[in-house]
Amino acid sequence: MNAADTRQRILMTAMELFWEKGYLSTSVSDILSRSQIHSGSLYHFFPGKQDVLVGVLELYRDGIGEMLLAPNWDGVDDPIDRVFALLAGYRTHLIVTDCTYGCPIGSLALEIHEPDPVVRDLMAANFTNWSTAIAGCFDAAADRLPPGTDRKALGEFVLTVMEGAVMQARTYRDIGYFDRNIAVLRDYITILLATAKDGSFA
Amino acid sequence: MNAADTRQRILMTAMELFWEKGYLSTSVSDILSRSQIHSGSLYHFFPGKQDVLVGVLELYRDGIGEMLLAPNWDGVDDPIDRVFALLAGYRTHLIVTDCTYGCPIGSLALEIHEPDPVVRDLMAANFTNWSTAIAGCFDAAADRLPPGTDRKALGEFVLTVMEGAVMQARTYRDIGYFDRNIAVLRDYITILLATAKDGSFA
DNA sequence: AGATGAGTTGATTGAACATTCAACCAACCA
DNA sequence: TGGTTGGTTGAATGTTCAATCAACTCATCT
């Protein structure tokens, strides 16, 4: 196994564990035993546990297109449909995990109370990538939305709703909380599209 | 100092610390040193650290009216205004703490990945109390909302938006993220009130 | 062949952790 | 007065933690 493999193996394992147990509850030993890598090797590539977290956050940041958007948007062309297709992807995660799923970035953001600036910036960058992607959908549908709609704010709002909906579904262990939240969001977006069409606010 | 005082002092201190540092990052020693109470006394009242958490969650649950709603709703009579008055309270917390504030329940919900059922039920009960209070506002304004509006879902939605908005403002250390999210929510509620008034969906 | 150095090994370190416990205290009552 | 109860003290326990490091492997280069 070469160097790149070892580094990758550590990061992939850490990504899994941080998602399953959270950052604080994952010990370096956990990463070592699951990845079958010895402590010296880990510390050869990473100065410390936090640097592993940084590596994981960089993977998420750089992989959002391939790992998150592409799978959910495959075959979905309408930009508004894409918004809800992405949310449907989160719903699937919740179902598959018996409503145990948590957004990895959101969990980290609330778990780490005094984040190192490097870590915080990476969490923020992940949020920005996500809401910017959604805002891009609204941009592509700009002519169907009321004029003057703040599409960036709308992207951030969808992120907010996703995070809040996942948080509640997970806490109650009940997908209904996710579905009802998304239904309200859908109602809002539907109204926006309708008011733009009939020109009532033009 | 009598028994009730000691117990109370432990819970108040733990409440502070769990909010400042989170549950996992707060050690029993932290609670002991700040509360000036010795380990034996703490373990006389609480079987373990998790039971302190349970006590804190019970305080939140039982104190939502007095500690959270009453202060924010004092002098605010209109039910819709009350919804946004509560959200404004969270905004104040964010401002006062330089956007470091996090909803204590939301943070715990995402921090603890495998919660004991007792803990999880208490977190859920706290969410329910919150969103039920908001749903109560919508109930009081039911005649100004479109008929058939799911007001319970709307209460959960407001909770979702608060949690997501706080999460983003905190991660970016920028109140703008909170304000934009609330502005979008306000837009939605405003539209609901307007469509009910002009009867366009009646 | 010999030197170089990136990468690996795993026992070890010292700090921090939650929890325990035997001894103690003070108020109240028999 | 002596016992009982409810609460307190703080040193001690055993565990887990992140991190270290001297010794090693082995491919590559001179």
Describe the structure.
The structure is a homodimer of 202-residue chains. The first copy, chain A, contains nine helices and no strands. The model of chain A has no long low-confidence stretch (mean pLDDT 96). In chain A, 77% of the residues lie in helices and 0% in strands. Chain A has two domains: 1-46, Orthogonal Bundle (Arc Repressor Mutant, subunit A); 48-198, Tetracycline Repressor, domain 2 (Orthogonal Bundle), CATH 1.10.357.10. With 202 residues, chain A is an all-alpha fold. Chain A starts with a helix and ends with a helix. The longest helix of chain A is centred in the N-terminal third of the chain and has 25 residues, at 49-73. At the A-B interface, α6, α7, α8 and α9 of A face α6, α7, α8 and α9 of B. Chain A binds a DNA duplex (30 and 30 nucleotides) through α3.
